[in-house]
Design a protein that fits this description.
This protein has 410 residues and is α+β, with helices and mostly antiparallel strands. It is built from 8 helices and 20 strands. Helix 7 (371-380) packs across helix 8.
């Protein structure tokens, strides 16, 4: 059974869009206190646990993007429907708007060796700022010096022995790194050094050096499947910067998007670079005490205008994914108007939050005890969500990143 509370000791945080595997020293991590008995169940972390058989954790995507299943929860009628994702065409009306996240997952996992010879894996939490490189020359082989560019980023290190600041990491002939310092929460600051003397750009080097950051519950071993590079990326992906896919968007195919366009259902992008804030583990009993990390968002003026005009016309704005939902709520005024906005989003949504914009959400199924489960519970109600999950489990739905989808209508 997968319950989201597997005991054990982990030396690092290893991310996925919905998953944070985190270290714990014992089985009674969630220790009851004298106030827990009186706590509102909506705020108690134990109220967000459920059991799931391992065989319902999707290891590969559906044969075609749109061939996943869709559980429709209509909060207005308390009815659930078991559908195919392509049936979503019948739920959208001409003039409706679909808002999607156009972030692009970058190959954030780097396997290499320490200067001592031991194996190391680096998970980049930041996409390098390739526009602001530090360029320098370093001693090369007999051909002379080599031109390099360096970038400082945060990451997570996995190794048998903790390397010290100043340690060098070697990934390939074009990419090396230096450990600058250890940070809180198991994170490190790393200086990436790209050898560009061969004519390759740092972007190209990273693209060929790293692996797609699949979440740990998708078991791949040392090699990914050939289709992972394509299928763990939405068709909307344009702007590199995410360490996990906005997985609700994975179900949209070219064919489905064409049919939606023919029905006069429009699509508009926002950007939220999925990062540490989405999958960071919740280490508190009272979920109100959880501190969510900030992620960069961008809502352009055209998208904001389309959203406002669609709602003014009496049509529905459909939100694809919890990342998009957070972004729209972050950019909304108290009256529900969406403004063009750029910046760091630290909005934390859990039961008790009053949504200003979102009332139709396409989402995947989320891990027990995760902040994403809190968000969908805030929208539809915790008991209603848990009942929906129980129904999906009973019907054999596939869960998590490569799994099936859910549509919540409020």
């Amino acid at each position: 059974m997968w319950t989201g509370s597997t005991p054990g000791v982990y030396l690092f945080l290893w991310p996925g869009e919905e998953c944070g595997i985190f270290f714990r020293a014992c089985n009674n991590f969630f220790t009851a206190d004298t106030n827990e008995k009186n706590m509102n169940p909506d705020f108690n972390i134990e109220s967000y646990q459920y059991e799931l058989e391992q065989n319902q954790i999707a290891q590969i995507p559906a044969a075609r993007r749109e061939q996943s299943r869709l559980l429709v929860l209509d909060c207005r009628t308390n009815l659930m429907q078991d559908m195919k994702f392509t049936d979503i065409l019948n739920l959208f009306q001409p003039g409706d708007l679909i808002v999607v996240n156009d972030t692009k997952v970058f190959p954030a996992r780097l396997a290499g060796k320490k200067d001592t010879g031991g194996k190391v894996e680096l998970f980049l939490l930041d996409y390098p700022d390739f526009k602001n490189a530090e360029t320098f020359e370093a001693a090369g082989d007999q051909s002379g010096t080599k031109e390099k560019q360096s970038f400082s980023v945060c990451g997570l290190l996995k190794s048998s022995k903790k390397p010290k600041p100043g340690s060098r990491l070697f990934f390939n002939q074009h990419l090396q790194a230096e450990l600058l310092q250890h940070l809180d929460g198991g994170k490190v600051r790393i200086k990436l050094n790209f050898d560009i003397s061969s004519g390759l750009s740092p972007e190209d080097i990273l693209l060929t050096s790293g692996r797609i950051p699949l979440p740990p519950y998708i078991q791949r071993g040392d090699t990914d499947l050939p289709e992972d590079c394509e299928r763990y990326q939405t068709l909307f992906a344009q702007k590199s910067g995410a360490v996990a896919a906005p997985t609700a968007g994975l179900h949209f195919s070219e064919t489905l998007l064409r049919r939606l366009k023919e029905k006069n259902v429009r699509t508009a992008p926002i950007t939220l670079h999925v990062g540490y804030g989405t999958f960071a583990p919740v280490r508190v009993n009272d979920i109100r005490d959880h501190k969510i990390h900030e992620e960069y968002v961008d809502v352009g003026p055209e998208t904001a205008s389309l959203i406002n005009q669609t709602r003014k016309n009496g049509n529905r704005v459909w939100t694809v994914g919890t990342t998009t939902a957070r972004t729209l709520e972050f950019a909304a005024t108290e009256t529900g108007q969406v403004k063009a906005k750029q910046g760091w989003c630290g909005l934390y949504i859990y039961p008790g939050y009053s949504f200003k914009v979102v009332n139709g959400l396409i989402t995947n199924f989320h891990l027990p005890g995760s902040s994403l489960l809190f968000l969908v519970s805030a929208l539809a109600g915790r008991l209603r969500i848990l009942d929906s999950y129980a129904t999906a489990i009973r019907l054999g739905y596939r869960f998590y990143s490569y799994g099936d989808a859910m549509l919540i209508i409020c």
